[in-house]
Every structure is written in C-alpha cells, then in structure tokens.
Design a protein that fits this description.
The complex is a heterodimer.
Chain A: H1 4-30, E1 34-36, E2 40-42, H2 48-55, H3 57-89, H4 93-104, H5 111-122, H6 128-135, H7 149-173, H8 177-185, H9 190-218, H10 222-228, H11 235-246, H12 249-282
Antiparallel strand pairs in A: 1-2
Chain B: H1 6-29, H2 47-51, H3 56-89, H4 95-107, H5 110-124, H6 130-154, H7 158-166, H8 171-200, H9 205-208, H10 216-226, H11 230-253, H12 256-261
The chains are: A mainly alpha, B mainly alpha.
C-alpha cells in the first residue's frame, strides 16, 4: 500500500477530523442533552428536545416557512437567472467579461452590506422605492417589506442569484452554437430553438443551480435576521436565538441538526434524481 | 453566434439594475450630510466616513478581519497544497471520500458549522479566542483554497519533473524549483479567494466570535440589529470599495470566470 498520498493529506485530514467531525458529533450529542434555566446543560441521553421540535407547532410552522422561502427564492432565481445567463453567453468579448464581473461580483461582496441595501431601498421612512412609487401615484401606501416574507424572499433572491447565473452559464459553455444555427437553417423559429435546443441543454445547469440556491436559501442567516427582524424567524435565526439569547443550547442543536439532515436529504435526493434523469443524455 | 435582440438587452439592463441597486444605494446614502438616513441630492458630505474614526470597535474589527483572513488563508493554502498533490497524482483508497470531506464545508450550512464550532471551542477552552476564529475560518475557506491548488496541481506537466530528476536534481530541488513556481499563480489566487471569503463570512463567525474578537461583518451585523443609521452605510461603503478593488485585481490576474466556475475555464476552450 502506498503511504505517500496519505502522508500528503495528513495535515488536512487531522484538521478536518478534529475541527469538523468531532464538533459535528458533539453537536448531535448535544441535541440529546437536557437543559434547564438553573441547572444548565445536563449531559444525559433524552429525547426531550427532539420531541419538542416535532410536537410544538411553532417549530413546524417555522420549518415550513424556511422551506417555503427557500423554494420561492429557488424558483425566482431560476426564472430570472437562467435567461440572463443565456443573454450573457450571447454577448461579445468586452461586454461579456464586464457584465460577468458585474453580475457575479456581488457574490463576493459582504452579505450584510447587500442586505442593508435592500433595507434602505424598501425599509423605514427612507424607502426609496416606496417613495418613488408613491410620488408617481402608483401606490397609496408604502409596500410592506421589512419584517415580511416577501422582503426576505426578494433580498435572498438578490443575494443568491449569482449562483444560479453561474451554474447556467457553466452549462451553456458546453452548448455548441452550431446546433442552434443548424436548427435555424432547418426552419425552426426562435421560440422553437429556445424550447427544443437551448433549454434542454441548459437544464442540468438550472437544476444544479437550483440545488445550490435552495440549500443556501434554507440555511441563510444574515439576510433573514436583518429583514425578518425579531418577529419573522427561520430555522437558522431560531437556532441563533437558542444559542445566544435563551442559552438553551440542546434545543438549538436539535433545530440545527434537523436543518442539516433535511438539507442533506433534499440535496442528495435532488442530485440523484438529476443524475438519473440526465445519465442517458450525458453519460 | 447570433446577437441579442432589443428585448433581451432591455431585460439585461433591468437585471443589471436589480443586481447593482442595493449596492449603489448603500454607497449613495453613505454620503449624506444629515444626521439621519437620507439620499443626498444637492449636498454631499464625508462626515459619516470621518465618523468611523470615532468608533474604535469598527476600526479594530476591520484590522482583526484583515489579520484573520490573511492568516487563515495562508494556513489553508499551505495545508491544501500537499492534499491537492495527493488527490491530483495518486489513485488511493479513500481518495473520493477525502475529497468529499475536504469540500464538505460548502455543503454543511454555515449556521450548523458555527454551532458545532461554538460547542467544540467552549469545551476545549478556545471559546471566543482568536485561535478559535482562525481554526474555524481555515475550515470554511479550505474548499476554495483546495479547488484552486487542485486545478494547478492537475495542470502540472510531469515530464518537467522527470527531466529535472534525470538531470540530477534532488526531490527537494524539484519541489522548490519546478513544482512550486508552476503552481504559484494557483496558490496566490486560491489565497485571494480564500481571503475574500474569510473577510465576508458572518453566519459562522457570529457564533464563534465574542466581544473583543468580533470581525468587521459581525460587528456590522450586530450594529444593524440594533439600528440602521448612516454610520453603518459608510462602513459598508468602505467594505464594498475594498472588495470591488480586490475583485477587479483578481479578475485581471486570474479571471473571475475561471475562479468561480472552477475547472471549466481551464479545460481547453
């Protein structure tokens, strides 16, 4: 047996064993511990937290809200992001690079700063968009945005959109423009070309982008925390509250582990479905 | 290749406006001369940028973020190079599992990682320390570092090494004179991408940082939770400017597409 690759990976393996696997195991164990206001964390094995998460309708509602928001964000970014990736792909050299930078760049700009922008556009007394719409007489009262699900969905769509554009863009890179031209030569209209040639080839990109966006939206923290405030909670902000405000760590750990499990199931399920569906085409 | 029609270009313009609007608005409000949030139209002022100087917690958080990003990215890249060489050039049992493990921080929600780190660091006595922050950041930026070091390790031409070896170079000389110079651009880009990701990370860090070890995004987040005023817009504007500058530099040096899409830029187009 060769030892070289194991020796080479050893530093990274050690790091991940100690700082990822052990802490995750400890978190799972923590979710089975008892907790009380005065006694703190009691290291026993009980199902109290899990029973609470599954029986209390508050958590059911909150998880349902989390996944509803994630689904809407995924749909919106697919519907609006995929056409943009296609348009970008058809651009010529200087513009293409420039707009790719403009559209993908925000991925690396602080989420806090980007969410703050949405709060400034719609929130409070300032709300630029509301002010403009009101002065144009299009609306009579400001559109509610802060502390609403709509607000979280819009801001999260903005934050995660670049991932969708990126995924579809990567898929379109493999598309041979000659196939489109061939279809046109054979008499296909632009709609037929889009529907029968471009869309099927972009679909794996849209689906893999959807999986990424869904996973990130369901576990997003900063955006729902800022837009949703203290009133509208999602899974990650509940876990945060339990850990840093109520200090009921075991219950917070149960919420976090459940979120992780749900996401792993959904992401793996979706990936397998995508692979099976496209295995014949691309295999 | 066919061109985009006018309808497509309109859509594109709207899309770009949607993408940029929140970012521009933050920078715009930052120049207000008023004591409250407003969009300056006739009078512009730098008062809120000067005001940052009166809030030492932002300044110290900024330097902590820079130090944390620089240090954890260096360590992440240093650890990723041998791992990348192992994955790129050896076929061994567990190779796929190792790769999946090293990429797992991309799959595990940052909020879950934050909770796991908080629990772990409190138990081992690293709670709220800078050391804890560095360890946590190395983990979450490791996939970015590994992706780029892996891309350059895969691209290495082994004939060059064989040539050096046959000319009498030692293994160490080959490493120093052949391998490292060839993978260096990948290492630098990997470092930069890891740095930006560390610099922007808030979700995981908010759990691990304590008062006194808060990073800039965490400080901004906690500030916004209490109230939104022009001060936090001017701090955000500075962060945006710094990130955009780094982005443009990175795009020039390596190509943003290659950086973000990963292999597809490299595999021969």
């Amino acid at each position: 047996m060769k030892t070289a690759p194991y020796l080479l990976s050893l530093p990274a393996l050690l790091l991940f064993a100690v700082v990822v696997i052990v802490p995750l195991g400890m978190t799972v164990a923590l979710s089975f511990h008892d907790w009380g206001q005065y006694k703190g964390i009691v290291p026993v094995f009980i199902l109290k937290n899990w029973r609470e998460v599954f029986s209390d309708s508050y958590y059911g509602e909150m998880f349902w809200r989390t996944f509803r928001i994630a689904l809407l964000v995924t749909l919106l970014s697919a519907v609006f992001g995929a056409p943009e990736a296609y348009i970008l792909n058809r651009m010529r050299s200087p513009w293409r690079g420039l707009f790719l930078l403009v559209i993908l760049g925000p991925l690396l700009i602080s989420v806090v700063a980007r969410t703050l922008g949405w709060a400034l556009l719609f929130g409070g007394k300032l709300g630029l968009v509301n002010a403009v719409l009101q002065s144009l007489g299009l609306i009579s009262a400001p559109l509610p945005f802060m502390f609403t699900e709509t607000g979280i969905v819009v801001a999260l769509t903005h934050v995660l959109m670049p991932y969708m554009v990126l995924a579809v863009w990567a898929a379109l890179q493999r598309l041979d423009p000659q196939v489109e031209n061939a279809a046109i030569t054979l008499g296909a209209g632009p709609v037929t070309v889009l529907r029968r040639i471009v869309l099927p080839q972009a679909m794996p990109g849209i689906l893999s982008g959807a999986v990424i966006v869904f996973a990130l939206a369901a576990s997003a923290f900063a955006t729902p925390a800022i837009i949703g405030g203290r009133r509208l909670k999602v899974a990650s902000t509940i876990a945060y509250d339990e850990f840093l405000n109520t200090l009921n760590w075991p219950l917070g750990a149960a919420v976090a582990v459940l979120l992780l499990l749900a996401l792993v199931l959904i992401v793996f399920g979706a990936n397998r479905w995508v692979e099976r569906r496209y295995a014949q085409v691309f295999g | 290749m066919s061109r985009n029609g006018p309808l497509a270009l309109c859509y594109h313009a709207l899309f770009v406006a949607f993408t940029l609007a929140p970012i521009i608005v933050v920078c715009w409000v930052a120049f207000t001369p008023e004591g409250y949030l407003s969009f300056p139209t006739t009078h512009w002022s730098l008062r809120w940028f000067r005001a940052i100087a009166r809030y030492p917690e932002f300044i110290s958080a900024f330097w902590r973020s820079i130090g944390l990003g620089a240090l954890s990215s260096v360590i992440a890249v240093a650890i990723s190079v041998p791992a990348a060489l192992a994955i790129a050039r050896h076929r061994f049992a567990g190779r796929e599992a190792f790769t999946a493990l090293f990429m797992s921080p991309l799959m595990i929600p940052n909020v879950v990682l934050g909770i796991a780190f908080l629990r772990f660091f409190t138990e081992v006595g690293l709670g709220g320390t800078f050391t804890g922050l560095v360890l946590a950041h190395i983990v979450i930026i490791f996939p970015f570092a590994l992706r780029l070091t892996l891309a350059s390790a895969v691209g290495l031409d082994r004939a060059l090494e064989h040539a050096a070896l046959s000319l009498g170079a030692s293994e160490w000389t080959v490493m120093k004179r052949i391998i490292l110079p060839l993978v260096l651009p990948g290492l630098v880009s990997g470092w930069a991408l890891a740095f930006i990701n560390s610099f922007d990370e808030v979700t995981m860090t908010v759990f691990v940082a304590a008062p006194g070890t808060e990073t800039l995004p965490v400080r901004m987040f906690l500030y916004i939770q209490d109230n939104i005023d022009p001060l936090v817009t001017s701090v955000s504007a500075c962060v945006i400017v710094v990130t955009v500058a780094a982005l443009v530099a990175l795009d020039r040096a390596y190509g943003l597409e290659r950086l973000l899409v990963g292999r597809s830029g490299a595999d021969g187009r």
